[in-house]
Amino acid sequence: MRGKPLFVRQAERVLAARLCGRVVIATTTQDEDDIIVEICRREGLGYYRGHPQDLLDRHYQTALQFGGETVIKIPSDCPLIDPVIIDKVIGYWLGNNGYDFVSNLHPASWPDGNDVEIMSFRALEQAWLEADRPMEREHTTPYIWEHPERFRIGNVRMEGGADYSMTHRLTIDYEADYQLISAVFEELYPADPMFGVDAILALLNRRPELYAINADLAGINWYRHHLDELKTVGAAQTKQEVQDRSKIHTL
Predict the structure, then answer these.
(1) For the whole model, what pTM was predicted?
(2) Nearest residue to 138 via CA among 62, 72, 63, 223
(3) Contacts of 32 (CB under 8 A, 6+ apart)
(4) Alpha-carbon Rg for the chain in angstroms
(5) Nearest to 220 by CA among 245, 184, 244
(6) pLDDT tens for residues 163-179?
(7) Phi, psi at 162, each rounded to 5°
(8) Quick one: which H or E segment has residue 232?
């Protein structure tokens, strides 16, 4: 993406957050990810190599190795993550003592692809020790946010009650997602390398043909693969509500 791998551009955006701590790329032990390590070394990025499927273990081992008391998880499929949103969630965590887990996902409101999850190392370790369902191991945090009776959970929403979470897709899983992200970079990066979500929304409103690139994928998420495992999703979402949402698009 403009001369650098997409994950490096994402790391630059994470590092641009004022409240950002140390950034570590948590990749896998698979041979195909040797290139990730080479790039991390070249770019001066910290990295950890862990289990290919058990991301809960990978994140736990990363935090253990790097000594983090607070762990912030930002998925690698969020290359347009807004540094301002990262700061909003971290700021909420810092300003409200007593939480075990804070995110902007339960319920979500920002465009998909701005995922920020913060947890104490203690909460992450408890999940690592006790979680046993495939969903909980693969996606790291479900064990925490599915047990609000055991963990103190907070959430940060967009201001003014706005909700773009099911209408705007800035994450990357499909070719159409990459096409949109490339187009956004080409339009906005030259003027402001750290362009934020407001600039993206304004661009897509101004250029509806760009929004249309992956509009048919809006609302697709990983939940649909784990409906039989879900108990709750957030404070206000039931399993049926998640199932209804997953029916918006079926692949």
Answers:
(1) 0.87
(2) 223
(3) none
(4) 18
(5) 245
(6) 999 999 999 999 999 99
(7) -65, 150
(8) strand 232-233
Name the residue type at position 16: A
Determine the residue type at 249: H
Residues 6+ apart with CB under 8 A from 134: 226, 229
Count of positions (residues) in the chain: 251
Reading the block at residue 20, the tokens are: 């950002």
Backbone torsions φ then ψ of 48, nearest 5 degrees: -140, 140
Report the C-alpha gap between 40 and 146 in whole angstroms.
Answer: 34
Question: How many helical (H) and strand (E) elements, i.e. helices and strands, does the chain have?
Answer: 11, 8
Q: What is the SS3 string spanning 113-165?
A: CCCCEEEEHHHHHHHHHHCCCHHHHHCCCHHHHCCCCCCCEEECCCHHHCCCC
SS3 sequence of 57-86: HHHHHHHHHHCCCEEEECCCCCCCCCHHHH
Q: What single letter denotes the amino acid at residue 163?
A: D
Contact 11, 23 (CB under 8 A): yes
Phi, psi at residue 127, to the nearest 5°? -65, -45
As given in the structure block, the two tokens for residue 4 are 């650098």
What's the CA gap between 11 and 79, in Å, rounded?
Answer: 8
Between CA 156 and CA 93 the distance in angstroms is 9
d(CA 24, CA 222): 24
pLDDT digits (tens, 9 = 90+) for 79-99: 999 999 999 999 999 999 899
